[in-house]
Design brief:
Strand content: under 5%
Largest sheet: 2 strands, antiparallel
Strand order of the largest sheet: 1-2
Oligomer: single chain
């Protein structure tokens, strides 16, 4: 077995083993505090105990989906679902009713991690990064505290990222049927991603060095149109939270820098434990990755790779969506920015081979 495969296995197994260890910790903690799922109570924040987390509020919401959210699909069909369609809850809620024990569902996160790892590796290979660059970029993502946290639970975010990867691979290889299937899965899991990712879809559809000038002008236009559409939809569906223009500004600063209140209150981060500690560390990790990206840009004399244009466009759109409609960020909701920033680091580091040798149909 060559050194490349050994490093690849290391990048895969170490985060997976940490996630398994975190699962064991959660189960032990739940037994210590007498944790149980109360389906009669709609609130879902009682999984946070003693500065630690047994289950995140969204995970508890999924478990009780059939009891409190059973009308979500009907609301979407009636045109009341807005930009936050989520049919994933039906699967998790159904499995919980089937097994009658949330502990079995922790396997979902491990499976999602495996799918995400495979899709990420394939995307980086398809883009054309050479092996050492690919290992570095893959390692930066898989060792993210947010990714490890998601691997030890049963939320949908890693699966969403996996289908984003599959959609980009399909665009590069011009496999439109696979692309539409990936988009269908994204629509089912988190429909707002299809709107936010339009600049990235455009970029990878034209992922060819002979079309860079066209794309560099086209993507800002697409972003402007999407921004106007989002403003219209915000007025149509309203916000889930009370928001102001300052909220949009805060979210914009956060996605472009990684800076937020969690990072500012750095001294409080290590007072938490387990999944709570990883959640706090996810924000610090995002800040470090963004600072690394800007440091590389400075070293290159501010010569931007064209990928920075769609990356910045997605940042602006995501900031507006959360600032005006969905509310504050948690570590996992910024993972798409982290992943695109890591890819942008790869482009900025010029680790590419000739794309035309990779853009083949197989």
């Amino acid at each position: 077995m060559n050194i490349y495969r050994l490093r690849l296995i290391f990048i895969f197994l170490v985060p997976l083993c940490i996630a398994v260890g975190l699962n064991v910790h959660k189960i032990e903690l739940s037994e210590q505090v007498g944790f149980y799922i109360d389906t009669s109570v709609k609130e879902a924040d009682y999984g946070i105990v003693q500065g630690d987390i047994v289950l995140f509020p969204d995970e508890i919401t999924y478990l009780k989906w059939m009891f409190h959210r059973e009308e979500s699909f009907e609301r979407f069909v009636a045109g009341e679902g807005g930009l936050s369609l989520n049919l994933y809850g039906y699967m998790v809620g159904g499995l919980y009713i089937l097994f009658d024990d949330w502990k079995y569902l922790l396997l979902i996160g491990l499976v999602n991690f495996c799918v995400f790892f495979y899709s990420s590796k394939k995307l980086l290979e398809c883009i054309g990064f050479e092996k050492n660059s690919m290992l570095l970029l893959l390692g930066l993502m898989m060792f993210s505290p947010a990714v490890i946290n998601l691997a030890s639970g049963f939320m949908r975010d890693l699966l969403i990222l996996a289908f984003i990867n599959f959609s980009l691979i399909s665009l590069i290889k011009r496999k439109l049927l696979y692309f539409f299937f990936s988009c269908l899965m994204l629509f089912v899991l988190r429909n707002s991603m299809l709107v936010i990712l339009l600049p990235i879809f455009v970029y990878f559809f034209y992922f060819n060095k002979y079309k860079k000038i066209k794309v560099s002008f086209f993507i800002p236009g697409v972003t402007a149109v999407v921004y106007v559409v989002l403003i219209f939809l915000m007025g149509e569906f309203g916000s889930q939270y009370e928001t102001t223009s300052l909220e949009i500004l805060y979210r914009t600063i956060e996605v472009f820098t990684g800076l937020n209140l969690v990072v500012v209150r750095f001294d409080e981060i290590f007072s938490s434990k387990g999944a709570a500690l990883l959640e706090n560390m996810a924000h610090v990790y995002q800040l470090l990755i963004m600072m690394t990206l800007y440091f590389l840009l400075i070293l290159r004399g501010f010569k931007l790779h064209i990928f920075f244009i769609p990356f910045a466009s997605v940042c602006l759109l995501l900031a507006y969506l959360y600032g005006a409609y969905l509310g504050f960020f948690v570590g996992r909701t910024k993972l798409i920015i982290l992943w695109l920033a890591i890819i942008c680091i790869g482009f900025s580091n010029s680790g590419l081979i000739n794309f035309k040798e990779k853009a083949v149909y197989d």
